[in-house]
């Protein structure tokens, strides 16, 4: 089986299966190869595949997040589907240079969080398979820290090295 995406190693290790990971420079060429049956599956965020899923050209098998997506409530998580504990979410965040005054960071965070809570904005994100959060700076820092630990362990377990 051939797969693409950053979650390939995690999936391969947790499932105890063999997969050939194929690196791509972006999701557009990866989706093209998936549609052309040049790869068997991929892990990706929803937006680049949403139109193809809705058109019936791609099947969404499972979601890697902790919980089901509002846009696809019928699609189980990979953990629910038989790989307990499998979870990998993509996040986007706003960062500022070190030393930015706390008052400015707080203002930026509260403004962005307020925008993400706007009903039209939040619904637009959800319709793309994205769950808007708007965490505090400390919570976001904890997310980054946890991901660094998770991926460091994965890199070691998969024996990945930089070339």
Q: What does this protein structure show overall?
A:
- The protein is mainly α.
- The protein has two domains: about 90 residues, D-Maltodextrin-Binding Protein, domain 2 (3-Layer(aba) Sandwich), CATH 3.40.190; about 70 residues, no CATH class.
- It contains six helices and three strands.
- Strands 2-1-3 form a three-stranded parallel sheet, with helices on one face.
Give a short overview.
The protein has 163 residues and is mainly alpha-helical.
Order of helices and strands: EHEHEHHHH
By CATH reckoning, the class of the largest domain would read: Alpha Beta
Supply the helix-strand structural class. mainly alpha
Q: Give the termini separation.
A: 24 Å
The biggest sheet, with number of strands, parallel, antiparallel or mixed sense and barrel status, is: 3 strands, parallel
Approximate shape: globular
Give the second-level CATH assignment, the architecture of the largest domain: 3-Layer(aba) Sandwich
Q: Which characteristics define this entry?
A:
D-Maltodextrin-Binding Protein, domain 2; three-stranded parallel beta sheet; 4% strand; 2 domains; 163 residues; mainly alpha; globular
Question: What's the structural blueprint in terms of helices and strands?
Answer:
Elements: E1 2-4, H1 8-15, E2 20-21, H2 27-35, E3 41-42, H3 50-54, H4 102-117, H5 119-127, H6 137-157
Parallel strand pairs: 1-2, 1-3
């Amino acid at each position: 089986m051939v797969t693409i995406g950053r979650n390939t190693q995690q999936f391969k290790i947790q499932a105890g299966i063999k997969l050939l990971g194929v690196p791509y420079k972006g999701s557009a060429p990866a989706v093209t190869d998936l549609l052309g049956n040049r790869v068997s599956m991929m892990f990706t965020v929803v937006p680049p595949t949403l139109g193809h899923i809705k058109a019936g050209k791609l099947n969404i098998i499972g979601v890697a997040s902790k919980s089901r997506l509002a846009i696809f409530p019928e699609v189980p998580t990979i953990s629910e589907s038989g790989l307990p504990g499998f979870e990998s979410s993509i996040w986007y965040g706003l960062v500022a240079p070190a030393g930015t005054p706390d008052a400015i960071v707080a203002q930026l965070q509260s403004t962005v969080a307020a925008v993400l809570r706007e009903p039209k904005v939040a619904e637009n994100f959800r319709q793309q398979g994205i769950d808007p959060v708007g965490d505090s700076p400390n919570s976001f820092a904890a997310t980054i820290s946890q991901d660094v630990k998770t991926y460091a362990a994965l890199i070691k377990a998969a024996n990945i090295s930089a070339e």
